[in-house]
Design brief:
By secondary structure, this protein is of the alpha+beta class. It has 3 domains: 87 residues; 142 residues, Serine Threonine Protein Phosphatase 5, Tetratricopeptide repeat; 153 residues, Glutaredoxin, CATH 3.40.30. Helices cover 61% and strands 8% of the residues. Strands 1-8-7-4-5-6-2-3 form an 8-stranded mixed beta sheet. It is globular, with a radius of gyration of 25 Å. Pfam families: AhpC-TSA. InterPro entries: AhpC/TSA (IPR000866), Thioredoxin-like_sf (IPR036249), Thioredoxin_domain (IPR013766), Thioredoxin_ResA/DsbE_sf (IPR050553), TPR-like_helical_dom_sf (IPR011990). This is Thioredoxin domain-containing protein.
Length: 489
């Protein structure tokens, strides 16, 4: 959902396709790029490159470059970019190349700031009306870099340079979180409050006024609200915190789960124990077992005794397992997995054939995919459950990476986080279809997980993720144990 909204935003801001390009033709191009066979893709790439000799506008070049990128025809894409940057040195293509290759590749904050200043000097924001979001992305990255360095003053300054209000509901969060991690609550609090207030503005709009921008802005509401209210709670300002939460639950009741922990903490601060207990019970029943110490204490406080607590606790867990089993039924399939042979981090081959006789969990992910990354502590815990089970193998399939040096980046990411994962690279294209494994499996978004039985049959397909470690452990256990059972198609 978030991906679709972002595409809509980019289209609206003019950063992907120009309006004057024939949209019907573009749709045909992308149909081929996303679903055509290798021959049709090659034919389209050649036709686009030949057609480019007649282009009279930068927008035409940008369209062709984007299609070539989707087709993964890097040689033609780079060649066309080189022509376009020479023809339009002050245009969007040259600017985007600078942002990608200079700003985002700068590792030190000082280098990032130098690149940003060069960016706004050579390509002033005023020269690209309607394209402010591109600059806001850069500003957010720069502000977060300063925050990580402990420079709250500059971090706050660059956040203040952002132009798009709808973006602040999400764009402010990484900077605020970096300041909070550094212990600078005083600087983080107003940042979270701004993000919260701006997101609330869009949430509160009448339904008919909620466009893609408004819907995207609302996505950051639970995170900014939770962070700001946690600060208030830490300061003992429980009643003020509760006012914000009550306001949030009226405007956006779907955010209740995201605010549940801080809501319970706030209710405890004003001695509303029964309400806090009910919220913690709901969280525990969804697999958030870290709430148990407080839940157990409240059970004793409210009942005057802990008698019956263990049975109550067991009932909640049984209900959770029952719900998980019902949930995974909707993801049940039975079909042969496509053959594959991919290289792991050591350069060794990992194939479907080599995994026969094992229940296999294929987890498709990328370093830039935050939902993927957030699920990894849970996936690590699930893998540890089966550490001594030689009949179960977890394979983390890295796919859709965007950088040329993705293998190095992936290795660094795994090493930095000390994940004991078997990682393979999904970069081997099928000679007939031109698709990598993710494409052969029909994956449209990541994270995506496939549970294979010992005969190489896909038994379950899941998309999306949760950061809830205990839930993931339980869900994976149910999926794996079910796949161990023999089933005939």
């Amino acid at each position: 959902m978030k991906f679709k909204l972002m595409i809509g935003l980019l289209l609206a801001s003019g950063t992907v396709l120009a309006q004057q390009v024939d949209r019907a033709k573009m749709e045909r191009y992308y149909q081929i790029a996303n679903g055509g066979n290798a021959e049709r893709k090659d034919s389209l790439a050649n036709a686009l490159f030949a057609e480019s000799k007649k282009y009279n506008s930068e927008d035409e070049y940008r369209t062709a470059i984007n299609v070539l990128r989707t087709l993964e025809k890097e040689d033609k894409q780079l060649a066309l970019e080189k022509i376009a940057t020479k023809k339009y040195p002050k245009g969007k293509i040259t600017r985007e190349a600078f942002v990608t290759n200079v700003f985002y590749k700068a590792e030190e904050t000082a280098a990032k700031e130098k690149a940003y200043l060069e960016l706004i000097k050579k390509w002033p924001v005023a020269n690209f009306p309607g394209d402010e979001l591109t600059y806001d992305y850069v500003l957010g990255s720069l502000a977060t870099s300063f925050a990580k360095d402990g420079n709250a003053k500059k971090a706050t300054y660059y956040l203040g340079e952002m132009k798009e209000r709808f973006w602040r509901g999400n764009g402010y969060l990484p900077t605020g979180q970096a300041l909070l991690a550094a212990g600078d609550t005083a600087a983080a609090a107003p940042i979270f409050k701004t993000a919260m207030d701006d997101a609330y503005y869009y949430i509160s709009l009448p339904e008919e006024q909620k466009d893609n921008k408004a819907r995207f802005a609302s996505m950051g509401y639970a995170s900014s609200m939770s962070a700001y209210v946690n600060i208030l709670v830490g300061q003992g300002k429980y009643r003020e915190a509760l006012e914000y939460i009550d306001k949030a639950l009226v405007a956006a009741p779907e955010q209740a789960d995201g605010l549940a922990k801080v809501h319970a903490k706030t209710l405890l601060g004003v001695n509303r124990k029964l309400e806090a207990y009910n919220i913690l019970s709901r969280l525990y029943a969804k697999g958030q077992f870290e709430t148990e110490p407080e839940l157990k204490k409240l059970y004793g406080d409210l009942n005057g005794t802990l008698a019956g607590y263990e049975q109550y606790n067991a009932t909640l867990k049984e209900e959770l397992v029952k719900n998980i089993r019902e949930h995974i039924k909707g993801n049940e399939v039975f079909k042969k997995a496509p053959d594959f042979e991919l290289l792991n981090l050591k350069g060794d081959k990992v194939s479907l054939a080599s995994l026969k006789g094992k229940v296999v969990v294929l987890d498709f992910w990328a370093t830039w995919c935050q939902p993927c990354v957030r699920s990894f502590p849970g996936m690590k815990a699930a893998q540890e459950l089966y550490a001594h089970d030689k009949d179960v193998q977890f394979v983390f399939v890295n796919t859709w990476e965007r950088d040329k040096n993705y293998k190095e980046n992936v290795a660094k990411f795994i090493d930095k986080n000390q994940y004991p994962f078997e990682v393979v690279f999904d970069d081997q294209k099928d000679p007939e279809t031109g698709k990598v494994l993710a494409g052969k499996l029909g994956i449209n978004g990541i994270p995506s997980k496939f549970i294979l039985d010992k005969d190489g049959n896909i038994r379950y397909m899941l998309t999306g993720s949760t950061p809830n470690v205990d839930y993931i452990k339980l869900e994976m256990r149910e999926l794996i144990e079910s796949a161990k059972k023999e089933k005939k198609g």
